[in-house]
Automatic annotation (TrEMBL):
<dbReference type="InterPro" id="IPR015500">
    <property type="entry name" value="Peptidase_S8_subtilisin-rel"/>
</dbReference>
<dbReference type="GO" id="GO:0004252">
    <property type="term" value="F:serine-type endopeptidase activity"/>
</dbReference>
<keyword id="KW-0720">Serine protease</keyword>
<dbReference type="Pfam" id="PF00082">
    <property type="entry name" value="Peptidase_S8"/>
</dbReference>
<dbReference type="InterPro" id="IPR037045">
    <property type="entry name" value="S8pro/Inhibitor_I9_sf"/>
</dbReference>
<feature type="domain" description="PA">
    <location>
        <begin position="361"/>
        <end position="446"/>
    </location>
</feature>
<dbReference type="InterPro" id="IPR010259">
    <property type="entry name" value="S8pro/Inhibitor_I9"/>
</dbReference>
<feature type="domain" description="Subtilisin-like protease fibronectin type-III">
    <location>
        <begin position="643"/>
        <end position="739"/>
    </location>
</feature>
<dbReference type="InterPro" id="IPR000209">
    <property type="entry name" value="Peptidase_S8/S53_dom"/>
</dbReference>
<keyword id="KW-0732">Signal</keyword>
<dbReference type="Pfam" id="PF02225">
    <property type="entry name" value="PA"/>
</dbReference>
<dbReference type="InterPro" id="IPR036852">
    <property type="entry name" value="Peptidase_S8/S53_dom_sf"/>
</dbReference>
<dbReference type="InterPro" id="IPR023827">
    <property type="entry name" value="Peptidase_S8_Asp-AS"/>
</dbReference>
<dbReference type="InterPro" id="IPR045051">
    <property type="entry name" value="SBT"/>
</dbReference>
<feature type="domain" description="Peptidase S8/S53">
    <location>
        <begin position="136"/>
        <end position="564"/>
    </location>
</feature>
<keyword id="KW-0325">Glycoprotein</keyword>
<protein>
    <recommendedName>
        <fullName>Subtilisin-like protease</fullName>
    </recommendedName>
</protein>
Length: 747
């Protein structure tokens, strides 16, 4: 039996913080609120000098005493040593000269709101796209995964109507009353476990299901972090659960799950598992997804966690939305303080309130070069190193929580996890079992250099809570699988990226130890987490536009995606913090509200895939395996894969010019005019005819032609990228362009 390992499974999206510190409006254009951190006072505050007077003493002499009250914002008495004041950058520089001053910076914008990834995606209660789409009401999302924890509060059916009349599924949960208007069906498809149930034994399925369509749950958090109201992307949609995995997934079980989901009448299928790229007729997730697409069902799949390698993307058929992973603007901060007072910022969800940060001796099992597994903190390596009572430095190999369990079992007091080079700057907020911080590869190099510089290295872990406002988000996670597609190089994959790092979602049990609060939520990371985000977005679009085909929904998602981060700079790759290429981002980062009104869509009818499949040089039998009917490719027309009416362009270009056509359908305004704007890929001339599209009615279709020519004076590079955007007075419809050069034909 062929087996597929679940794509690295990781976590949903909840985040809210307990306090909001709004930046004060400055009285003058150059004034801004700063939080000023101070050294503790040598002695108690006297009656003649109260705390506020002491704080005021740090204000620069240039500020008149009569203005103190208007400048001081807060004098903190309990939470920290310091105050907040309205200052200019010059005044802050002057303040730095005073004894007792530590630092000053503008406050981050922290918010009390619902689960953070919906908010990060622009979804807000009672307004905008969430309201317009009725929160996905009436749409059925089929989750193929490891089962469900049905009594979790995320799966309450409060406010949810009964399933639509078309629903034909069944509930195998025991008792059957565990199914409700939220979980309308649950079935089990693991051949080797005939006596099993749909109950989730790993947590992965519970997590992905609540990410896609969990109901509103107040007080979701882990150790108080990311505290707020959790919700899935489509919180009022129905869930149909198909348990096809335990710790691994059999292709036969997965196919059975897809088959049943189609029969049951789901609208969206979410699949956070898969293998490597191979011909679609021999790859059972794309094969099953093809049949679903023919029945009008939208299929969303994880891209895989094999990044940053190129050609690592899976689930890469054009009838699947292939989803990569990106970061959000939230971090669950934990830092490692070294004995040289160097503080390195990382992340950890394990942050007990009563923990007293302590310097422990720092030990690195990887210094034993004779043991190839020592750096990864395997049990034998830990036992041979002597880690008891020490902070242990481990290189990321095993899952972070597993490494912590091993370190704790060996007597370690704390742990620092550092990335290997290919994981770059991607850090994760795991619910560890001991004080820990996950740091970047660059910080790991710094720690090793420090350890080599002293005979008695030490380190302590500090917890810094939840922070929101990272303007470098979104960025592509280093682990997110990359294109090009091996099975079809003329189709750009992945299609899109969405939140997939440190996602908070439902979990079968509490991950908190020795606490009075037992919140059943957990953080996970991976494309397994980004996929259900997009499944939820597809459900919202299906609710708002029930007549749209799966291809139209995919087009709307792709052509409205964001190509820049919150700082309005190109989305970065966390491998190296350089701009990410299109083989990492696809069309960009999902923007659900814009996808609801895309202007134009690139639609594809199921029959249009036949010339595409024949053009891949599949035999008649191989094409027939996908279509489930006889096909004669000598009779059918053949097209190169780049000719499929896809919302992006992936061109394999040599010395010969190539020309392709695209057809767009007007779903915006009846009378509208679009003009083309081209960002030329390096070394390529891109020409579009016509350069203006004039529509006179809704649903009108117009066709344009694109010609790609390799320039004679082009740089000697293996690939290049650009974009093609149709713009009207109201809409911007963007398609990324990826060009891979045939090196043997370089001019």
């Amino acid at each position: 039996m062929a087996l597929m390992v679940i794509s690295t499974l990781f976590c949903l999206f909840s985040c809210c913080v307990l306090a909001t510190i709004a930046r004060e409006v400055p009285q003058k254009s150059n004034l801004e609120t700063y939080i000023v951190r101070l050294e503790p006072r040598d002695g108690p505050v006297t009656e003649s000098e109260d705390l506020e007077s002491w704080h005021r003493s740090f204000l620069p002499a240039t500020i008149e005493s009569t203005n103190y009250d208007s400048r001081m914002v807060y004098s903190y008495r309990n939470v920290m040593q310091g105050f907040a004041a309205k200052l200019s950058p010059e005044e802050v520089k002057e303040m730095q000269k005073k004894k007792g001053f530590i630092s000053a910076r503008p406050p981050e914008r922290l918010s009390l709101h619902t689960t953070h990834s919906p908010s990060f995606l622009g979804l807000q209660q009672n307004v905008g796209f969430w309201k317009d789409s009725n929160y996905g009401k009436g749409v059925i999302i089929g989750i193929l995964d490891s089962g469900i924890t049905p009594d979790h509060p995320s799966f309450s059916d409060d406010g949810i109507l009964p399933p639509p009349a078309k629903w034909k599924g069944k509930c195998e949960l025991r008792p059957a009353s565990l199914c409700n208007n939220k979980i309308i069906g649950a079935q089990h498809f693991i051949q080797d476990d005939q006596n099993g149930t749909s109950a989730d034994e790993t947590g992965h399925g519970t997590h992905t299901a609540s990410t896609a369509a969990g109901n509103f749950v107040k007080g979701a958090n882990v150790y108080g972090n990311a505290n707020g109201t959790a919700a899935g992307v489509a919180p009022l949609a129905h869930l149909a659960i198909y348990k096809v995995c335990s710790t691994v997934c059999s292709e036969s079980d997965v196919l059975a799950g897809i088959d049943t989901a189609i029969e049951d009448g789901v609208d969206v299928i979410s699949i956070s598992l898969g293998g490597t790229s191979k011909p679609f007729y021999d790859n059972y997730v794309p094969l099953g997804a093809y049949s679903a697409m023919e029945k009008g069902i939208f299929v969303s799949c994880s891209a895989g966690n094999e990044g940053p390698d190129y050609f690592s993307v899976g689930n890469d058929a054009p009838w699947i939305l292939t989803v990569g992973a990106s970061t959000m603007d939230r971090k669950i901060r934990a830092s490692a303080m070294l004995g040289n007072n160097k503080k390195l910022e990382g992340e950890s969800a394990f942050q007990p309130k009563d923990y007293a940060s302590t310097m422990f001796p720092l030990v690195y099992p990887g210094s034993n070069k004779s043991d190839p597994f020592a750096a990864y903190c395997f049990p034998d390596s830990l036992n041979n190193t002597g880690v008891k009572g020490k902070t242990v430095l481990c290189e990321r190999g095993l899952p972070g929580v597993t490494m912590g369990e091993l370190v704790k079992a060996a007597g370690g007091a704390a742990m620092i996890i550092i990335n290997p080079e290919d994981r770059g700057y991607t850090t994760e907020a795991d619910a560890h079992v001991l004080p820990a911080a996950h740091l970047s590869y660059v910080d790991g190099v710094k720690i090793k250099a420090y350890m080599n510089s002293t005979k008695l290295p030490k380190a302590a872990i500090f917890f810094n809570g939840t922070a929101i406002g990272d303007d470098q988000a979104p960025a592509v996670a280093s682990f997110s699988s990359r294109g090009p597609s091996e099975a079809s190089p003329g189709i750009l994959k992945p299609d899109i990226v969405g939140p997939g790092v440190s996602i908070l979602a439902a979990w079968p049990v509490s991950v908190e130890n020795n606490t009075n609060t037992k919140s059943t939520f957990n953080f996970l990371s991976g494309t397994s987490m980004s996929c259900p985000h997009l499944s939820g977005v597809a459900a919202l679009l299906k609710s708002a536009h029930p007549d749209w085909s799966p291809a139209a929904i995919k087009s709307a998602i792709m052509t409205t995606a964001d190509s820049v981060n919150l700082e309005k700079k190109p989305i970065a790759d966390q491998l190296n913090l350089l701009p990410a290429d299109v083989f990492a981002t696809g069309a960009g980062h999902v923007n659900p509200s814009r996808a609801n009104n895309p202007g134009l869509v690139y639609d594809i009818e199921p029959k249009e895939y036949i010339p595409y499949l024949c053009g891949l040089n599949y035999t008649n039998r191989e094409v027939g395996m996908l279509l489930q009917r006889h096909v004669n490719c000598s009779v059918e027309s053949r097209i190169p894969d780049s000719q499929l009416n896809y919302p992006s362009f992936s061109i394999v270009l040599g010395a010969t010019a190539q020309t392709y056509t695209r057809t767009v359908t007007n779903v915006g305004e009846a009378d509208s005019v679009y003009t083309v704007n081209i960002v030329q890929p390096r070394g390529v001339s891109v020409n579009v005819e016509p350069d203006t599209l004039k529509f006179s009615k809704l649903h009108e279709k117009l066709t344009y032609e694109v010609r790609f020519i390799r320039l004679a004076n082009a740089p000697n590079v293996s690939a290049s990228q650009g974009s093609l955007t149709w713009t009207s007075d109201k809409y911007s419809v963007r398609s990324p362009i990826a060009v891979t050069f045939i090196t043997s034909e370089l001019l």
